[in-house]
Amino acid sequence: MSISYKLNTALGMENDAPNVQVNIDTDEGGMPLDDVVATDDGEFEPTPEADAAEITERAEEIEEDNTDIEDMEVASESLVATYEAMALAQRNGGLTREAATFAAISVESVMSKYDVGHEDVGISLESFDDNKARATTVSMEGIGQALKDLWEAIVKKFKEMVKKIVDFYQKTIAAAPRIKRRAEGIRKKADKTTGSPEETQVKVGLFPQLNIQGHVPKAGELIAGIQAGRGVYTKNTSKVDMKKELEKMFKVNFNDANVWNSIVEVFNSLKVSKVDKLPGNNAFYSEYSELNSSGNSSQDSNAMSSAVQNFKYGVFEDKSGVKNSKENREKEFPVLKKDEVIKICDEIILSMNDIISFKTQATSGFDTGAFVEKEGAKLIDKIANQGSGENKGKHEGTARRYLTAIASVARKLQAGEASLVRHNYQVSKAALAYCARSLALYKN
Question: Which of 4-13, 135-144, 190-199, 409-418 shows the lowest mean pLDDT across its residues?
């Protein structure tokens, strides 16, 4: 008797039970192939598998944007470092031709890769033979223009990414009730199940989604893992008020030696204990360098820039797990007892309720991308008129780093929330497939 037939028979529901029809046609891993399923009222809706495919596609698009922005942020840091070096060289009359040569290579590489600035704002090496002070000033102006263009490119991509995150949440929130109904139906079937399973082990292609630190989880470990993932939001991510933190960050005075304090405070507020042993060999954590404002704006500027680039927030691969946890698809899992199925379904129902009611940064009604664009433009105008000479160069370099850091923190917080929601949804779908496979082996 085929697994497909057993599933169809085992999950047959009474008239008053939630509709959790399971598709007959499956792939080699046992996952349904159909995109829609009939509802009780005769309509059709996407299957959780079809939902998962769309959610995964949206999540991958977000990750691609995230990577693109990170690359632009690194490029911006390179330009800022060159800009600050030029400002410092002005004390000695400007860059030498040799130093300008190395600077030109770095600047032109960024400008050509990201199509920022234009030919007449690059570094003209010939001009350094005539008047290196003037040439340095003109080159700084060119780099300033390139930084402005690069910032606009970062903001544009960030706004696109925020829209994709909103779309991701809308699709996930729409899909969650379908997973919830499947869990309710499987739970009811488990409650009515009698007898014993025909087998003690069941081979399923769910190891990448359900393994705990590289091994097949016991039922108690899987239940604890689902519960831990569900608890991350209420304990950690819901505590961050993006609007409040961004408003505070943009109220800065670059004459203040402790200008980086706002971002330091945000980092310190994100201190959370690592939540490990999540299904899929995953863990939730915020990872960053411990920071304290030293009072030296130059030192703080460099330290903060490095910390923000390395800042992680969200669900990532559990570093304590084994490396092949994603590779072995077919593994034998112990057949679940009916009370274990019920407990898993209860946790999944709660998890889907959390997703449905999530008040995330992207769904709060606060447009992070538009706010960063608007306030960033104000900040750029503000620093353009602050100070003069070397002092002006320091202000502008620090401000550029600060501006990029603000956008980076906002971006990573939103992407981190999205990774958590995606994790909880995918684990729930996989765990229900495991429950269904187990129930299909019981002889009533």
Answer: 4-13
Residue 32: closest CA among 432, 444, 438: 432
Closest CA to 222 of 56, 355, 336, 51: 336
Return the amino acid letter for 60: E
Residue 260's pLDDT band, with cuts at 50, 70 and 90, is confident
CA distances from residue 10 to 14, 334, 340, 357, 432 in whole angstroms, order as listed: 12, 18, 17, 32, 14
Q: In what order do the strands lie in the sheet with 312-317?
A: 275-278, 282-287, 312-317
Give residue 93's Cα distance to chain centre.
46
Report the DSSP beta bridge partners of residue 275: 284
Instruction: Give the separation between CA 171 and CA 92, rounded to whole angstroms.
Output: 59
Residue with tokens 């501006």: 403
Position with higher pLDDT, 409 vs 134: 409
Cβ-count burial 116-135 (b if 16+ within 10 Å, e if not):
bbeeebbbbeebbeeebeeb
Which 3-state string (H, E, C) describes 335-367?
A: CCCHHHHHHHHHHHHHHHHHHHHCCCCCCCCCC
How many CB atoms lie under 10 A from the CB of residue 210?
24
Find out whether 215 and 281 touch, Cβ atoms under 8 Å.
Answer: no
Task: State how far the Cα of 399 lies from the Cα of 139, in Å rounded to an integer.
Answer: 19
Burial class (CB in 10 A: 0-12, 13-18, 19+), 179: buried
Nearest C-alpha neighbor of 369 from the set 92, 223, 154, 139? 154
pLDDT at 326 over 90: no
